[in-house]
Design a protein that fits this description.
heterodimer; A: 330 residues; alpha/beta; 2-enoyl-CoA Hydratase, Chain A, domain 1; eight-stranded mixed sheet; 14 helices; 9 strands; 16% strand; B: 300 residues; 2 domains; two-stranded antiparallel sheet
Chain lengths: 330, 300
């Protein structure tokens, strides 16, 4: 598995990876072993190790803590927007630029065809190589990124293309220039326009749903989230810094914020959890693609059968219903 | 002005106060007369929602709306202090049930739907109730064909203690404002110190016309977070009203004492039903002249 960093993984996953590497090395020994008796022993050993591995994985993945899930959402080998775009869409035509300032590589947009269905694809781009990651500010978009997305959404609206939005950002970029160019205004405008854009919008959080930076391309008709993704008003680190003046208490903050897919469903924000291959999407990206594809196609099918008025009214009512409060007697 | 230490101690007698911006000792009564603005440096002190209503609306016209909405603790949030405790404390301090105080009223004779986000209530942060009131306010304005004026003091942005529910109030409020604006309604955002984060990145940034009070802190990310991220000193005046004005993100910076007149004027320009406006506003708007073209249109 070239290009995959096998040891730069969350701590809870390390024993698993180590055991896997051990199994792999024994397999190589087996391939080279000429003596049949000894080969048989190695085979038995591998079988035992595999049993251990299964047990170990069960024990780890059965009881994932919210913070573990946050780490999985940021996993270095986890499929990114660019992977889903490459893996799911035919004839992808990237469309760049906000026509006002520059092209922000932290947001990827373009035409794509999903099983014959023409759509506009967009998503946060974190980058694969170090160079790309730096260019993309690790998935933190500037105002021009949001403005680019809005332009492409308007284009999709004009030509009746449904929109599929992949969300994966730690948050919008907090920088001097981002403020100078109106980060708040760019996000606000996207949110407002998406609430009433006349084509279906499916949002899928594939990794990090980082606050306003996520919502800036995250309003739509369907709110889907992958099993090991999170969505939060503030990063666990930021929350910990506010609550306990200690960013290292992020794990505690992750528990307080109720940011896991199950929490988000319970709170009435997300519609559906897209399951991942056993142990996370990074363990079997191809299978993850298939599952995502099926989910997207199903929702596209449902949404494209609706009339525009019905679509927009239900999108509005869905948003109007978000939030929890009580009405006390006056 | 210089003050020796004995005079400074006199501050505690309640007649004097220290300006939080220029640190001058100023006579409280003068500050109050000047709409809670420092007579020395022009700093706009934080005021309560009640004072805001008093400064901007015609006397006795304010009628509260959506007063019965109250926050719950949907996450059962426990930081240093529980969210419930925080709410109770803020309610006690402000006398309001929530940070958002909404209602109808008149500005120089013109009916408006009016909202204030009170910065004194958990930093004016937006939870479910604030978002709901913002949305209902827009819907009310649309239904009754009235201008919608919201004064923000929301330095807290989206309220962390309500987690994801707060974040999506950004979308809820913006969607309702969109409907009002698409139908031809007027929405004016008045930005006051401070308006940040999720509030600034949604309803506060979406005014048809946007007016900011001087020297208010307005932005997306907090200055400390930015300084930590970019590891350099922030430019002078960064994220102030004047900074946003220069970069094209607000229409005007307007001192508090002129706000009411300014809002009345904007409403006049953006009010489609000129005849009705003149009729309802005639008693109060002697100083507002109606342009000849509008007069002619109204006469038809």
């Amino acid at each position: 598995m070239s290009g995959v960093d096998r040891l730069n993984v969350p701590e809870f996953e390390r024993p698993i990876v180590e055991l896997e590497m051990k199994i792999e090395s024994r397999r190589m020994d087996l391939a080279e072993e000429k003596d049949q008796a000894r080969a048989k022993d190695i085979q038995a050993e591998i079988a035992d190790l595999e049993k251990d591995l299964r047990k170990l994985m069960d024990s780890v993945f059965e009881k994932l803590d919210p913070w573990d899930r946050v780490q999985l959402s940021r996993h270095p080998n986890r499929p990114l927007t660019s992977d889903y775009v490459a893996g799911l869409f035919d004839d992808f035509q990237e469309l760049k630029g906000d026509r006002s300032y520059k092209d922000d590589p932290a947001i990827l947009c373009g035409f794509g065809t999903l099983e014959g269905r023409k759509v506009m694809v967009m998503g946060h781009r974190k980058g694969k190589t170090l160079k790309e990651r730096l260019e993309c500010n690790f998935g933190c978009a500037h105002p021009e990124g949001y403005r680019k997305a809005l332009r492409k959404m308007k284009l999709a609206e004009k030509f009746g293309l449904p929109i599929v939005s992949f969300i994966n950002t730690p948050g919008a970029y907090p920088g001097i220039e981002a403020e100078e160019r109106g980060q708040s205004h760019a996000i606000a405008e996207n949110i407002r326009e998406m609430s009433n854009l006349k084509v279906p919008i499916i949002t899928l959080t594939i990794g990090e749903g980082g606050s306003g930076g996520a919502l800036g391309i995250g309003v739509g008709d369907r709110y889907l989230i992958m099993e090991n993704a999170y969505y939060s008003v503030i990063s666990p680190e930021g929350c910990a810094a506010i609550l306990w003046h200690d960013a290292k208490k992020a794990a505690d903050a992750a528990r307080v914020l109720r940011l896991t897919p199950n929490d988000l469903i319970e709170l009435g924000i997300m519609d559906e959890i897209v399951p991942e291959p056993y142990g996370g999407a990074h363990r079997d990206p191809r299978k993850a693609m298939e599952i995502v594809k099926a989910a997207l196609l199903r929702h596209l099918g449902e949404l494209t059968s609706l009339g525009v008025d019905e679509l927009l009214e239900s999108r509005y009512q869905r948003l109007r219903g978000m939030g929890k409060y009580i009405e006390v007697a006056a | 002005m210089t003050w020796d230490s004995s005079r400074k101690r006199g501050a505690t007698d309640g007649l004097w106060m220290k300006c939080t911006s220029c640190e001058a000792m100023v006579y409280k009564k003068v500050v109050e007369e000047q709409h809670h603005v420092c007579p020395e440096c022009g700093f706009h002190f934080r005021i309560s929602s009640k004072q805001r209503v008093q400064y901007l609306l015609d006397e006795g016209t304010f009628k509260p709306l959506f007063e019965n909405l109250e926050s719950t603790d949907p996450l059962n949030f426990k930081g240093k202090k529980s969210y419930r405790e925080k709410l109770q404390q803020a309610q006690k301090q402000t006398g309001n049930r929530e940070a958002a105080v909404f209602g109808t009223g008149q500005i120089m004779g013109k009916d408006v739907v009016f909202g204030v986000i009170d910065a004194n209530f958990i930093m004016g942060s937006m939870g479910s109730v604030v978002g709901e009131k913002l949305a209902r306010g827009a819907e009310h304005a649309l239904k009754h064909n009235m201008p919608y004026i919201v004064v923000s003091g929301s330095g807290g942005g989206a309220r962390m203690e309500e987690g994801i529910l707060s974040l999506f109030q950004m979308a809820k409020s913006s969607a309702a404002i969109k409907r009002l604006q698409d139908a031809g309604g007027l929405y004016v955002a008045v930005l006051t110190n401070a308006t940040m984060g999720g509030s600034m990145a949604s309803w506060a940034a979406l005014g048809d016309v946007t007016i900011a009070e001087p020297q208010a802190l307005l932005g997306f990310a907090g200055p400390r977070v930015i300084a930590q991220t970019v590891r350099q000193e922030l430019p002078a005046g960064f994220q102030t009203s004047e900074f946003l004005l220069e970069r094209g993100f607000v229409d005007q910076v307007c001192p508090r004492k002129d706000l009411r007149q300014r809002l009345a004027s904007i409403i006049r320009y953006c009010c489609k039903d000129v005849a009705a406006f003149r009729k309802s506003g005639a008693r109060h708007t002697a100083k507002i002249s109606v342009p000849a073209a509008a007069k002619a249109a109204a006469a038809k």
